[in-house]
Amino acid sequence: MVKDTSMTSPLFKLGLAALCSTLLASCAQSPTGRSQMLLFSPQQMSKLGADSFEEMKKQEKVSTDAKMNAYVSCVAKAVTAQVPSQYGITSWEVVVFDSKQVNAFALPGGKIGVYSGLLKVAKNQDQLATVIGHELTHVLAQHSNERLSRSQLTGLGLAAADIAMGSSEYRGATMAALGLGVEVGVMLPYGREQESEADRLGLDLMARAGFNPAEAIPLWQNMSAAAGGNAPPQLLSTHPSNENRIAELQAQQAEAVPLYEQARASGLVPQCKA
């Protein structure tokens, strides 16, 4: 019999932290225990994410490949179904961008973008779920809010009203805080601590959806191979070193595999076909 760990999981605790942060700023703490400064409300961040996503859809080519869209949506739907209800995100919009970029992102407000180039490196549904789980966790852990708050404290002077209204004067700074470059399609890095959190909690999330967490290892090996000794793919370039990342993911298998087995035993067996 597999023990039900849903109430004690980092993601569940993260949901409680997110709920708490709406009440007390001093309550802001990442699921790994790292202190966070969050100056903007979930509503402000959701509006910012939604506005930025609409901007990207206007400026980037959206894929019309029905099979590819169905495949990505299938994986995303399975992973997002495991997002704790405390976040209040009832639906996620998934868009595939027709681009050779090896990348994906998620934005506050329930937005997910996947570049078609990623599917040449994420070879199966489990590897794609690894990436989507990682990107979702950036949203759930409020990493964008954290980075935007830090920007304000370090002198950019971003006012809450400017963020909420999407002031053009601050567009570059706010897009950067979301992980999106001023130049459309250019992804900017989160900090290494944030990336490590997203790896750990994203693996938890995808395993709970019934995807095999062991596939996270070959995914990052594929990423490294795709670099070909040159500059690595955008998704890899700003993250922890490849060797450290793989070592950490291997160590996390002991926690993730039981979650995967529990999910499969309960009937969560994704069948997303590329």
SSE string, helix = H, strand = E? HHHEEEHHHHHHHHH
Low-confidence regions: 18-26, 157-165, 182-187
Structural class: mainly alpha
Into which percent range does the helicity of residues fall? Answer: 40-55%
Q: Note the main sheet.
A: 3 strands, mixed
Q: How many whole angstroms does the radius of gyration measure?
A: 18 Å
Strand percent estimate: 5-15%
Layout: helices, strands, pairs:
Elements: H1 10-21, H2 42-59, H3 66-80, E1 93-97, E2 104-107, E3 111-115, H4 125-140, H5 143-156, H6 160-165, H7 171-177, H8 192-208, H9 216-227, H10 234-237, H11 242-251, H12 253-265
Helix pairs in contact: 3-4, 4-8, 5-7, 8-12, 9-11
Identify the notable features of this structure and list them briefly.
274 residues, mainly alpha, three-stranded mixed β-sheet, 12 helices, globular
Description of the molecule:
By secondary structure, this protein is mostly helical. The protein has one domain (10-265). It is 53% helix and 5% strand. Helix 4 (125-140) packs across helix 8 (192-208), helix 8 (192-208) runs parallel beside helix 12 and helix 9 (216-227) runs antiparallel to helix 11. The longest helix is centred in the N-terminal third of the chain and has 18 residues, at 42-59.
Q: What is the gist of this entry?
A:
This protein is mostly helical.
